[in-house]
Structures are given as C-alpha cells and as structure tokens.
Specification:
The protein is 13% helix and 31% strand. The chain contains three helices and 16 strands.
Length: 298
C-alpha cells in the first residue's frame, strides 16, 4: 500500500492519516505560465506523482478510470450528519447537494459521467478490504480512520488504484474512491462568496467542496501546487469560486477525451492489441487531503 498526501502546506509536509504516513510530494518550482491543470501520473518507479498539464507533451500517462461512467453511493443524510446552517432553504438533503456537484462535472465532461448508485453503502470505508470492494461513496466523518482531522482539513479523497502490466508495460487505473467530509466543521449549501457566522467563523459550502473532491476522484490534483496561477475549483484552498472554470473543464476533457468514430483511446489507457498478456502487480491507495483554508483565489 502506498499513500501520498497532496496538500498546500509546502513540499516538506507529512501527516499521519489512518495510521499510515501520507507524505507530501516534492514539487519543483517553475516559472508562471498559462498552465491549466494538474493530474496524477505513474512515475518510472511505479509511484504516483503530481504532474502539470504542460507535461502532457512528455507522454505522462494520467491515472484515470477505465470506465467512462462511475456510480457513487451517497450517504450524507444519515446519523452523524451536521445541521445545515446556510442554504437558499434551510434544511434539505445533503445527498441532493452532492448530486448537484456530480451533475456539474457531468455537464462539463464530454466522455465521463458520475452516476448516483441506487445502493446506499452503510459500511465503514476504513474497514479492511474497503479499498478493494469497488464501492465508491461520500460520507461525513468526525475522524479519518481512527485519527483526528488535522488543522483546516475539510475533506479527504482516498483513491484506490491498481497497477497492471500488459506486455511489459506498467500502467495504473483508478478502481474506487472514498470521499470523507469533516463533519466537525460548520456547513451549508449555497452559491457565491464564502459565508461566515456572527463570530466570523466560516460556514463552508458542501457543494463546492464536493465539486473539488470529485475532481480528485477523476484524477485531477491542485494546479497551484505546480505554480499554476489560475482560478479553478481544483485550487488547494477554499475561496469564492463555486463553479467549474475553463481550467477545470480542460482538465477533465483531457483526461477523458471524447470517443471518436466509435473508438475510444483516452489518455493513459494502453491497448495491447487484444493479444497481450495482463498481470495485476498490486493494489494501493493515495490520500488526497484538502486543507481547505479560506483564501481568495487570485
């Protein structure tokens, strides 16, 4: 098992999560340019790394889903759900807010869609084997797998991936995801600038947070961690952006390009021509931690 924490706390940050060490990627600073997005790739030593979109020209294979339609179990309205403090109509279902975030990605993507799973998974996403069960879910969590939430962490996406080898070529694909949302924070569902309570504490918008986390579930990472100075929902800190931007949309449609003439050949999915032998090398997971401090994006 491998775990990597991609956060905005600097290249030397490490944090223990779920009893495992999630260590930050060492990112090389580069001059500012018109880079649009960042994404997960498989390095030559078979570890996952964060890559800027300019590296697409270097044939860096994205780590993505093999399927172009993925179902997610929504379990946000059960026991342990926080009160909704800010929304156009107080109350309402958190699951419906999550569905709104899923549909925003669906409207932007030409060759991928999130679907709501009719099965509500009440199981523990931290239990042994949960990372290999093929069940994707979004849940509230007062802790993450037995460990307390770190400072300013609003949500965490655990991506479980599989390494396989076809004719000697190793690739990685996403096999399931688990999104944990910190239930100890104050939450609402709204558009526009970030809301604050009477004491000046932020009331976070669950829709934009889940929009961000579902982007991680697609294989996207934080563009600003690669010196990409852009306004995007995938920015590493909370701000007033609540919709997908052009950079986010470019990201998903680059990772999941549209099928052409009935033949789909998305980036990062290698074909053996039908005659190759495939072997499964390992199953692992990556922890994408979102230290969602409030910050104006640009």
């Amino acid at each position: 098992m491998r775990a990597i924490n991609i956060a905005d706390k600097g290249p030397s940050t490490s944090v223990f999560v779920g009893g495992l060490l999630c260590s930050a990627l060492l990112l090389i600073a580069a001059p500012q340019s018109s880079w649009a997005f960042s994404y997960l790739t498989l390095d030559s030593d078979q570890t996952l790394q964060d890559t800027a979109s300019t590296s697409m020209s270097n044939q860096s294979d994205p780590v993505v889903w093999e399927a172009n339609q993925v179902s997610v179990s929504l379990n946000l309205d059960g026991a342990g759900a926080p009160s909704k403090l800010a929304s156009p109509s107080l109350g309402g279902a958190w699951n419906e807010d999550a569905l709104v975030s899923m549909e925003k990605w669906n409207a932007a993507a030409t060759w991928f869609s999130w679907e709501r799973d009719s099965f509500v998974n009440d199981g523990d996403p931290c239990s042994p084997g949960a990372g290999e069960d093929g069940v994707n879910n979004i849940v509230w969590s007062a802790q993450y797998c037995g460990d307390p939430w770190g400072d300013d962490i609003l949500a965490l996406t655990q991506i479980n991936y599989q390494l396989s080898q076809i004719d000697g070529v190793v690739s990685a694909k996403i096999v399931d995801i688990h999104i944990h949302v910190n239930s100890l924070e104050k939450w609402g569902a709204y558009d526009g600038p970030l809301h604050f309570d009477q004491s000046g504490q932020p009331i976070y918008d669950v829709k934009r947070v889940l929009l961000h986390e579902l982007g991680h579930g697609l294989g996207l990472t934080h563009p600003d961690d690669n010196n990409q100075n852009v306004v995007a929902i995938m920015h590493s800190t909370e701000g007033d952006t609540f919709l997908l931007t052009d950079d986010d949309i470019d990201g998903v449609n680059t990772l999941y390009p549209k099928e052409i003439a009935g033949v789909s050949a998305p980036s990062g999915r290698r074909s053996s021509g039908g005659g190759g032998s495939m072997s499964i090398l390992m199953l692992g997971f990556i922890c994408l931690i979102f230290p969602f401090k409030y910050k104006e994006h640009l």
